[in-house]
TrEMBL record:
<feature type="compositionally biased region" description="Low complexity">
    <location>
        <begin position="775"/>
        <end position="792"/>
    </location>
</feature>
<dbReference type="InterPro" id="IPR040108">
    <property type="entry name" value="Laa1/Sip1/HEATR5"/>
</dbReference>
<dbReference type="InterPro" id="IPR011989">
    <property type="entry name" value="ARM-like"/>
</dbReference>
<comment type="similarity">
    <text>Belongs to the HEATR5 family.</text>
</comment>
<feature type="region of interest" description="Disordered">
    <location>
        <begin position="774"/>
        <end position="804"/>
    </location>
</feature>
<keyword id="KW-0677">Repeat</keyword>
<dbReference type="InterPro" id="IPR016024">
    <property type="entry name" value="ARM-type_fold"/>
</dbReference>
<protein>
    <recommendedName>
        <fullName>HEAT repeat-containing protein 5A</fullName>
    </recommendedName>
</protein>
């Protein structure tokens, strides 16, 4: 490689190399040129410029791959900027001639792409030195665009973007031509073309004012249409364009306003002297609003096809516009946001109160998520403490104003009902943002809560009597957050609400609202350092017991009192064992009296009562079970044999009731469907916390109920669970596509994912989340169990409490009841499966096969997903408990079920089937069985030509190696690797390439030293793919990165050696990492950082920290969470060995290198410290702390 480090390419050395090594040699030379040209003396460049231009021009004709053409382009542009320009126009003409060539064959395409790329780099770097050549070039590019295939369309858009960037206003005469071409590409069927077109128009905004003046509305509409059918990358790129476009209108308006104040003329001239109108803030926000509510339909005049169905706006458009709102505010800056705070808040909250934003309950939840995301990303992240306090005041005023506008007089109910129904969403978003701000402000929120003129607590309490549950729950959550921030509020508020419940016992809304608030406040006690007096728990318990006792006295209030009573008792459990211990006898009595004590009682119950009585009964039983769950979760130390036995009586009774409930449900129809589902959910939740063998006698009934739940036998809807993502391996996100990516936008992007309910969580789905800990570990117990006067309190050091409070900041989003029940059924099934007899296992597996066979199309997919989630849960528990799968017939049935789904058309099901196959081989633990499974996949891969079979069986091989381990699968390692290496070269199908490379990475990871013999061949393939695969195939590059990472681990400490072969391999790894790093996609760049991190582990001297550290520090300011996370992780590792050097290098970074970051005198530690204000990911926070 040293021979490549010369200014002029060493052609003799190149000719002596074997064919497959030549591209790497050329790459090394071009990389050297990129670094050396700016540093070489002008005389030296002058002497060799002619030869250099000739050699680089020859390389253009040599059909270079994406990275090489980028380096050729960069080298030529740099050469003409630091050397003479005498051959510049010849080079431009040569590139134009290549584009004029009519040869459309695939073999000539790389040459054309290289010519386009070179033109782009030269215009970008040399700017107006290019003279008027742009006229010819732009017209040729636009003509070429008409018949170009997708790669060429992407490259042309990139080049037009660079022409606009380099030439600025000098090319005003062709701006409209470029815009016209980019408009078509913005609606292209290939997503990468849309991204490139959005970036091209974005770059034009800086020098083409007509875009944000005469074209403003039509370009806005175009952006909404570009969001339709888009993927994540397109939404980000188009939102960047739309947000920046509108920000420019406001900058123009602000400039005009400041001139007016100074007494200057306000007429703004545009090119030929025409005065342009200014766009007000209301108009700019109005354009975004039209997209959010109607998808821009108001501009489209009959183009209604972008609205899917009649249910309002397309969700992709709404999420895209949400991104655009955030971009707009970020562009305008924090000072502007502070100045326009009230206008912005009122506008954003009015969006969600609009009937078009909430056509259905699910739509309303999605819209609320979007609005909360806008508020968190702007007010939560851009403002300082003082401005956040002002935002809190503004939100309190908005909440109070909204509550004052509600007419509670029953005579006017008809008129105001609709308005109240939609205004609840405004209140939910305002209160959720207020909650997050209070947690962030911490104890400084005391000033806000104590402000007599503001009366924040009173304004929030007023919402507790709102007619809609969602608003009441949001107010309760807000009060909980106020108590976490200022623990001094807990005791006064408990007293206030206990008294309010006593006084307002005849109002259903007040009963529901105040009990929710009291439950939420009790749930906040675990975050308080000092807790609350013990007697408070007893006072609340007496109040709750009285509510349950008086429930039957007033039929109008019976349902609300029942719900309130059980909710409060469930919240008391979170105060921990010291409080609950004294109340346990009374609780056991309440549980016993809540359920029929014998079958005779159960039968007589079925014979009497109407729908309402049954509804109250079922709500009461669901409540009793939710208290049991809370007791088991928060007071596990009180659970002994006697208590378990006494708990099992009501639990068995609940199970018996549910088994016999069919006739009652038939009689009363859909009215009892939800309460019955809630009882099932609470029963399943409770059973997951009891020992798995506790209900051994009732397994038959329980299993039948669980299987019927997730196979949807009594459910007409195609409901899927939300657990499949978490049960598949974390790395599988690569092959499952973007829906598993870690991004800051996950909260809003989740709603667009197929077969996923993850985005539809809302507090009204399960009020118990008001008091439940954010994770099972957050048990609220008294401080070390020794305090006799207080309860609650933190159970750990300050650091853990900070993390707990950070978790408390996020409002919980329990999933819809239908999804939550299936989730719990699947979890419980997995727990019980290892305890079940062989014949039952066989029956269930055969039943699963039958269920899948009978279902059709989308219902079949839903059933399959639920069955595979349950199966993965069961296999995981079998492994954990070291239990065997069962006899030969069970093994055969499970294998048949899994193999049939390996060729499903749905990639998620294929992924789950591969995972299940690996886990099955792990549980069986028989090398002969594993060999059979592997051989089956080999045979299929050798004969099949379709994408589905190839991807499914590639993944199966990867999973077999992953779960059986290198030693257990060594005999078929060679065959697996050779087949996957062959599939990795299948350029006709990038999907097959990605899946096979991912499987190869798993095999390399699990193979350890046994994979060492395959490293060279695999690394050669990786380099070849990095040099040839188009950058648009992000998943292939990402999988290559994963393979390279695994290979570095395989070679390990050997990389420190000094031999020629080791040095060559080390160079190849560094070359691969550099190629990955040069990719534009953040996911691929993150893989590159992972590779460099592994190299640092084994061969730290091979890395150049002076280049790496500035790159990593620069990434700390980027918008992509995955890059920030990878950067922090890598910096942490570097700091373990070279802390002083890393800090010194960070201080040497100048402002030109990092435009978005300001490094103060505190250097890197200060920068990392500032990240603690904005980052929320637990792993990243841990890395920053360390």
């Amino acid at each position: 490689m040293e021979l490549a480090h010369t200014l002029i390419l060493n052609e003799d050395a190149l000719k002596q190399l074997p064919e497959h090594k030549r591209p790497v040699f050329e790459l090394e030379w071009l990389r050297y040129l990129e670094k050396a040209l700016p540093l070489v003396s002008k005389a030296e460049i002058k002497a060799s410029q002619k030869k250099l231009v000739q050699q680089l021009s020859e390389r253009i004709q040599g059909a270079p791959g994406p990275p090489i053409r980028k380096l050729i382009a960069s080298a030529l542009a740099t050469l003409f900027s630091v050397g003479d320009t005498f051959m510049l126009f010849d080079t431009v003409n040569a590139c134009n001639d290549i584009l004029k060539n009519k040869d459309d064959s695939p073999s000539y395409l790389p040459t054309k792409l290289a010519a386009i790329c070179v033109l782009g780099s030269m215009y970008e770097k040399l700017g107006r030195m290019m003279g008027r050549t742009y006229e010819d070039t732009v017209q040729i590019l636009i003509r070429t665009l008409r018949n170009a295939e997708s790669q060429a369309r992407i490259e042309i858009m990139h080049t037009l973007e660079k022409v606009s960037a380099g030439m600025g206003t000098a090319i005003a005469n062709v701006h409209k031509d470029i815009y016209k071409a980019a408009k078509h590409c913005l609606l292209d069927r290939v997503m990468a073309v849309r991204v490139a077109a959005a970036r091209c128009i974005l770059k034009m905004i800086y020098s083409a004012p007509f875009l944000y003046q005469t074209e403003l509305e039509s370009l806005g509409t175009l952006c909404f249409r570009a969001f339709d059918g888009s993927n994540y990358e397109v939404r980000c790129a188009v939102a960047q364009l739309l947000g920046t476009l509108l920000a420019y209108t406001q900058q123009l308006a602000e400039a005009a306003t400041s001139k007016k104040k100074q007494g200057q003329a306000v007429a703004i001239q545009a090119g030929k002297g025409a005065t342009q109108r200014l766009v007000s803030l209301d108009e700019a926000l109005g354009i975004l609003m039209s997209g959010f509510l109607r998808g821009g339909a108001s501009f489209l005049k009959g183009t209604g096809e972008i609205i899917k169905g009649s249910s309002g706006v397309n969700r992709e458009v709404r999420v895209g516009v949400t991104h655009a709102y955030v971009v707009f505010v970020q562009f305008m800056g924090s000072v502007w946001l502070e100045r326009q705070l009230s206008t912005f808040l009122a506008h954003v909250l009015d969006l969600v109160a609009n009937p078009k934003a909430a056509c259905s309950h699910v739509d309303a939840v999605y819209s609320r998520k979007c609005i909360s995301f806008i508020l968190r990303s702007t007010i939560g992240k851009m403002l300082g403490e003082k401005a956040q306090s002002a935002a809190c005041k503004e939100l309190v005023h908005l909440v109070a104003k909204q509550m004052n506008s509600i007419d509670f007089n029953p005579e006017n109910a008809k008129d105001s009902n609709q308005e109240t129904l939609f205004s609840q969403h405004l209140l939910v978003c305002a209160l959720q943002e207020l909650s997050s701000l209070l947690i962030g402000l911490g104890t400084t929120a005391q000033n806000l809560l104590g402000d007599q003129s503001l009366q924040a607590i009173d304004a929030t309490c007023a919402v507790l009597v709102h007619p809609c549950a969602a608003a009441r729950l949001a107010a309760a959550w807000c009060l909980r957050c106020a108590c976490v921030a200022v623990p001094g509020q807990i005791t006064p508020l408990i007293d206030r609400f206990v008294e309010a419940i006593e006084q307002m016992r005849s109002s259903p809304e007040a009963m529901a609202g105040y009990s929710c608030a009291l439950a939420a406040i009790l749930g906040s006690v675990r975050y308080s350092p000092l807790g609350i007096p013990h007697t408070k728990g007893k006072v609340v318990f007496n109040c709750a017991e009285e509510l349950l006792r008086s429930a039957s006295q007033n039929s109008r209030m019976s349902l609300h009192r029942t719900q309130a009573g059980w909710l409060l008792i469930g919240a008391i459990m979170t105060l921990g064992s010291p409080v609950v211990k004294g109340l346990l006898p009374r609780m056991l009595l309440l549980w016993r009296n809540s359920f029929p004590r014998s079958n005779k009682e159960l039968e007589s119950e079925k014979a009497r009562g109407d729908a309402f009585t049954w509804q109250v009964t079922l709500e009461g039983r669901a409540g009793a079970l939710s208290v049991m769950h809370s007791f088991l979760l928060n007071c596990p130390d009180l659970l002994n044999e006697d208590i378990t036995r006494r708990l099992l009586t009501p639990i068995e009774s609940a199970l018996a009731m549910l088994v016999n409930l069919a006739s009652v449900l038939k009689s009363y129809g859909t009215q009892l469907k939800a309460p019955a589902a809630m009882v099932r959910l609470r029963l399943f939740e409770t059973l997951t916390l009891l020992p798995a063998n506790a209900l051994e006698a009732s397994y038959t009934h329980l299993l039948r109920m669980l299987v019927s739940e997730f196979t949807l036998s009594d459910n007409a809807a195609n409901t899927t669970n939300s657990l499949l993502r978490t049960l598949c391996h974390g790395d599988d996100s690569i092959i499952l596509g973007t829906w598993l990516q870690e991004t800051n936008h996950r909260t809003i992007e989740d709603q667009l994912q197929p077969n996923s309910a993850a985005g539809s969580g809302a507090l009204e789905h399960d009020p118990c989340c008001l008091y439940r800990p954010r994770s099972a570990q957050g048990n609220g117990s008294s401080s070390n169990g020794s305090s006799a006067t207080s309860t609650g309190g933190s159970n750990g050091g300050g650091g853990s409490n900070i993390q707990q409070i950070s978790k408390a900041q996020q409002c919980p989003g329990p999933l819809p009841l239908g999804v939550a029940v299936i989730d719990m059924a699947v979890t419980l099934y997995g727990t019980i499966f290892p305890k079940v007899a062989n014949k039952h296992r066989l029956q269930m597996l055969e039943h699963f096969t039958e269920c899948i066979r009978q279902a059709k199309s989308s219902r079949q997919e839903a059933v399959q997903m639920n069955i595979f989630t349950a199966l993965l849960c069961a296999l995981k528990n079998l492994t954990d408990s070291k239990t065997s799968l069962g006899q030969e017939d069970v093994r055969k049935s499970a294998t048949a079920l899994i193999l049939a789904s390996l060729t499903s058309a749905n990639s998620t099901i294929r992924c789950a089937a591969g995972e299940a196959l690996g886990r099955l081989a792990q549980v069986v633990g028989d090398s002969h069985f594993t060999a059979e499974l592997a051989q089956n996949s080999f045979d299929k891969l050798k004969s099949a030509r379709d994408v589905v079979t190839r991807t499914g069986h590639s993944h199966a091989l990867g999973c077999l190696h992953r779960y059986v381990g290198g030693m257990g699968s060594s005999q078929h390692l060679s065959t697996s690797v050779s087949i996957l290496l062959a599939l990795g070269q299948d350029s006709a199908s990038p999907v097959v390439q990605a899946w096979s490379l991912y499987a190869l990475a798993q095999i390399a990871d699990s193979g350890g030293p046994m994979f060492r013999g395959y490293v060279e061949a695999t690394l050669t393939l990786c380099l070849k793919l990095l040099l040839t695969v188009p950058h648009a195939h992000v998943d292939v590059h990402q999988c290559v990165g994963r393979v390279v990472n695994a290979l570095i681990t395989t070679v390990g400490p050997e990389l420190q050696g000094g031999g020629g072969a080791v040095a060559t391999m080390r160079g190849s790894f560094l070359c691969s990492a550099a190629l990955l790093q040069s990719h534009s996609d953040p996911l691929v760049q993150a893989e590159a950082i992972g590779c460099l991190q592994q190299l640092h582990l084994f061969a730290s001297k091979s890395l150049q920290l002076e280049e790496l550290v500035p790159t990593l520090v620069g990434m700390l300011a980027c918008n992509y969470f995955i890059l920030r996370k990878a950067s922090v992780s890598c910096l942490r590792q570097l700091a373990h060995r070279e802390a002083k050097e890393v800090c010194e290098l960070a201080l040497t970074i100048n402002a030109e290198q990092l435009t978005d970051l300001v490094i103060t005198e505190y250097g890197l530690p200060g920068l990392l410290f500032s990240l603690l204000d904005t980052e929320t990911d637990a792993e990243m926070l841990r890395n920053i702390h360390v």
